[in-house]
């Protein structure tokens, strides 16, 4: 499953791909509970803009088998607390419809 991440300040984000060993999406807000803020990356983003983003067509697709658990039982892709989507995208609160969600699963689709 490909996990794309637009959280440039996450310690697991490398070239907009998630490098975490496992990912969990929480029940109420579809928030990525695996998100871990990297203060050094955040400082670079604030001072220089988001230098971690690269156009999708320039990035090699890096698919890995990452366990993706999902507690959002009202999501269409949730089957027995496992995500069956082909891939997910994690976005920050400016790109999400969920208020107060710092790292949200944009692939969430209410069942």
What does this structure look like?
It is a single chain. The chain is mainly beta and 111 residues long. The chain has one domain (2-105). 9% of the residues lie in helices and 23% in strands. α1 (39-48) links the parallel β4 and β5. The radius of gyration is 14 Å and the shape is globular. The two termini are 21 Å apart.
Relative strand content: 15-25%
Tertiary shape: globular
Count of individual beta strands: 9
Average pLDDT, rounded to a whole number, is 79
What characterizes the major β-sheet? 3 strands, mixed
Low-confidence segments: 52-59
Strand order of the largest sheet: 1-8-9
Cα end-to-end separation? 21 Å
Question: In DSSP terms, counting alpha (H) and pi (I) runs of 4 or more, how many helices?
Answer: 1
Q: Encode the helix/strand succession as letters.
A: EEEEHEEEEE
Q: Tell me the count of domains.
A: 1
SS-based structural class?
Answer: mainly beta
The share of residues in helices is under 10%
Short structural description:
The chain is mostly beta strands and 111 residues long. It has 1 helix and 9 strands; from the N terminus they run ββββαβββββ.
Give the arrangement of secondary structure elements:
Layout: E1 2-5, E2 13-14, E3 17-18, E4 23-25, H1 39-48, E5 68-70, E6 78-79, E7 82-83, E8 87-91, E9 104-105
Parallel strand pairs: 1-8, 4-5
Antiparallel strand pairs: 2-3, 6-7, 8-9
From the structure above, extract its key features:
111 residues; mainly beta; 23% strand; 9 strands; 1 helix; globular; single chain; 3-stranded mixed β-sheet; two-stranded antiparallel sheet
């Amino acid at each position: 499953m490909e996990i794309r991440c637009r959280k440039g300040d996450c310690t697991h984000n490398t070239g907009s791909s998630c490098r975490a060993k496992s990912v969990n999406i929480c029940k109420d807000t579809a928030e990525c509970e695996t998100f871990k803020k990297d203060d050094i990356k955040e400082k670079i983003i604030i001072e220089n803009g988001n230098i971690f983003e690269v156009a999708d067509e320039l990035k090699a697709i890096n698919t890995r088998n990452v366990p993706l658990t999902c507690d959002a039982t009202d999501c269409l892709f949730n089957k027995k607390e496992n995500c069956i989507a082909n891939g997910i995208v994690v976005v920050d609160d400016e790109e999400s419809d969920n208020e107060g969600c710092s790292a949200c699963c944009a692939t969430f689709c209410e069942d």
